[in-house]
């Protein structure tokens, strides 16, 4: 197991919820935390399969859900039909800028967003748990975008 501390958090979470503690679930945990960037359940499943894992697609799907509830992963939706996940473990809160032409995703941090989120929650009598913020934009000027030079 590569991520011992995260595995401990997950084990406690599974115990609390009376979920079964299986080696496959910890295999998914490691693969998810090692994955570079944002991934869909299928992308993770395929990359695990390519690494000769025998974990089933169903196990990948339901373990990702559990890991999200355990706050080890964040669920993201960048406007596409598939949801994506990313590691939340030992990572700073961040937001996303999504290119609607080529799909590339840039991460950024911005204190003002955090302050405004907290202010709004407070005003409405809530306590902020987490927040997510996406900007959808066009990166036409970036040479690595396939739409560069178009028009
Ligand atoms: Zn682009
Ligand atoms: Zn991200």
- Structural class per helix/strand content? alpha+beta
- Helix tally equals 5
Mean pLDDT: 90
Beta-strand level of the residues, as a percent range? 5-15%
CATH superfamily of the largest domain: Winged helix-like DNA-binding domain superfamily/Winged helix DNA-binding domain
CATH C-level class of the largest domain is Mainly Alpha
Q: What's the Cα radius of gyration?
A: 18 Å
Here the CATH topology of the largest domain equals Arc Repressor Mutant, subunit A
Uncertain spans, ≥5 residues at pLDDT below 50? none
Query: Secondary-structure element order, as H and E?
Result: HHHHEEEEHE
Please state the overall shape, judged from the principal axes of the Cα atoms: flat
Write the layout of secondary structure elements.
Blueprint: H1 4-16, H2 23-34, H3 41-50, H4 57-69, E1 73-76, E2 84-87, E3 95-99, E4 105-108, H5 111-123, E5 134-137
Parallel strand pairs: 3-5
Antiparallel strand pairs: 1-2, 3-4
Helix pairs in contact: 2-4, 3-4
The structure holds zinc ion (2 copies).
Describe the structure.
The chain is α+β, with helices and mostly antiparallel strands and 151 residues long. It has two domains: 1-90, Arc Repressor Mutant, subunit A, CATH 1.10.10; 92-151, Dna Ligase, domain 1. The protein has five helices and five strands, in the order ααααββββαβ. It has helices at 4-16, 23-34, 41-50, 57-69, 111-123, and strands at residues 73-76, 84-87, 95-99, 105-108, 134-137. A three-stranded mixed β-sheet has the order 4-3-5, with no helix packed on it. A hairpin with a 5-residue loop joins strand 3 and strand 4. The chain starts with a helix and ends in a 14-residue tail after the last strand. The mean pLDDT is 90. One zinc ion is lined by residues 38, 86, 94, 96, 107.
């Amino acid at each position: 197991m590569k991520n011992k501390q995260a595995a401990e958090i997950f084990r406690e979470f599974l115990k609390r919820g009376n979920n079964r503690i299986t080696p496959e679930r910890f295999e998914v945990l490691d693969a998810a935390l090692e994955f570079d960037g944002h991934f869909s359940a299928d992308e993770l499943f395929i990359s695990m399969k390519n690494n000769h894992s025998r974990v089933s697609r169903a196990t990948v799907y339901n373990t990702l859900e559990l890991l999200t509830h355990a706050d080890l992963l964040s669920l993201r939706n960048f406007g596409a039909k598939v949801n994506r996940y990313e590691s939340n473990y030992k990572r700073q809160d961040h937001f996303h800028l999504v290119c609607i032409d080529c799909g590339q995703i840039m991460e950024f941090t911005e204190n003002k967003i955090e302050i405004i989120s907290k202010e709004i929650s407070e005003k409405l009598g809530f306590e902020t748990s987490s927040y997510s913020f996406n900007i959808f934009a066009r990166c036409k000027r970036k040479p690595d975008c396939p739409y560069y030079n178009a028009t």
